[in-house]
Write a structure and sequence with these properties.
The protein is of the alpha/beta class. It is 26% helix and 36% strand.
Length: 174
């Protein structure tokens, strides 16, 4: 049986020189790779008590939905601004080159709910930090974060040191 890392294609010098891009789509395009990714991520949080799974657009949807389904929990979307039809709450945050806004439905998290965030990758932790603030603004408690890939060299874990963070694969570089 292949290891999860073997399904990830690493592309040097993309999107710019010196960066190694870790391609998640190569995992998704292989049935065994996708199953292994979901099963591995779910196994990492098997001991975690949570009420709801939250995933950001778009790959958080891909990994979060089957974990929510398998654990019989609801799934909540976090999307880019202007994509959700009902009343939303939003947060602006900084990107490496600019700003972004994410939002979620105002009624999607109930006060006191224990929340698991699921995403494909964590790098600097900025997007995850924004998601946490959004969830907490609705009264939710983030009890865990699980990702398929962690780029340890970008030190996102430091920014999220007050939260449990599990990663299926951890690459030391950027």
């Amino acid at each position: 049986m292949k290891k999860l890392e073997e399904y990830v294609v690493s592309i040097p010098d993309f999107p710019e020189e010196g960066i190694i891009f870790r391609d998640v789509t190569s995992v998704l395009q292989d049935a065994e790779g996708l199953k292994l990714a979901v099963d591995t991520m779910q196994g990492l949080i098997a001991d975690l008590d949570f009420d709801v799974v939250v995933g950001p657009e778009s790959r958080g949807f891909i990994f979060g939905t089957p974990i929510a389904y398998n654990t019989h929990k609801p799934f909540v979307l976090i999307r880019k601004k202007g994509k959700l039809p009902r009343e939303t709450v939003s947060i602006d945050y900084d990107l490496e080159y600019g700003k972004a806004t994410i939002e979620m439905h105002k009624d999607s998290i109930k006060p006191g709910q224990k929340v698991l965030i699921v995403d494909d990758l964590i790098a600097t932790g900025g997007t995850t930090e924004a998601m946490i603030k959004l969830i907490e603004s609705l009264g939710g408690e983030v009890v865990g974060i699980v990702v398929m890939i962690e780029l340890a060299g970008l030190e996102g874990r430091k920014k999220l040191s007050n939260y449990r963070l599990d990663s299926a694969i951890c690459y030391p570089g950027k």
